[in-house]
Amino acid sequence: MSHEKTPVMPQGLMPVDEALALVTHDVRALPAETVEISAAVGRVLAAPLTARRSQPPADMSAMDGYAFGYGPDLALPASWTVIGESAAGRPFEGTIAHGEAVRIFTGAVLPAGADTVAIQENVARAGDGISLKAPVARGRNVRLAGFDFQAGSPLLPQGRRLSGRDVMLAAAAD
Fold it and tell me: Beta strand 129-132 with 79-86: parallel, antiparallel or unpaired?
């Protein structure tokens, strides 16, 4: 003897699974659209988002200061000759040799031959010469190329509803 009861539906109603089948029977996915990035918040990705470029695109300074090649024998007191400047959008065009440094600003591309940035607060400058007032580790204050993401990296999955943060990521990767 079974004690299972058949669900009793109020008159005029149908079971949920039947209602869902009826509603979804004719539902079709909308075709993908391309929209301006300013209109992308709240939209759903039709395909995975992949980075078209690396970010940062080159080794860059994370602080204002002086860029130099660390060298195998760096010890305090250390000094360099300043041979130029690198600012965001105006990179230093030359190559830094041993004993040379370049004044650099946050977001500027690191010159060839440089691998370290000493922050300006830890540097004493006299004319074209600088010296360290405090130790600095090799590679310090540098954002390496591709640190955030590299070209070809998957960033967001298909089907994701885009937030403002996602849209900013997409803009940085394009």
Answer: antiparallel
Region of 159 (left: φ > 0; alpha: ψ -120 to 50; beta: rest) is left
Going from N- to C-terminal start, the domains of the chain cover 42-57+145-174, 60-142
CATH topology classification for 60-142: Molybdopterin biosynthesis moeA protein; domain 3 (2.170.190)
- Largest distance between two CA atoms of the chain: 101
For residue 4, give Cα distances in angstroms to 1, 7, 8, 10, 160.
9, 9, 12, 18, 42
List Cα–Cα distances, 20 to 7, 16, 23, 25, 130, in angstroms.
17, 6, 5, 8, 74
Q: Is the pLDDT of residue 108 over 60?
A: yes
Q: How far apart are CA 49 and CA 37, in angstroms?
A: 13
Q: What is the pLDDT of residues 136-152, one digit of tens each?
A: 889 999 999 999 999 99
**pTM strictly above 0.90:** no
Listed in sequence order, the DSSP H helices in 29-91 are none
> Mind listing the pLDDT tens digit for each residue in 9-40?
677 788 888 888 888 888 888 899 999 999 99
Neighbours of 14 (CB within 10 A): 10
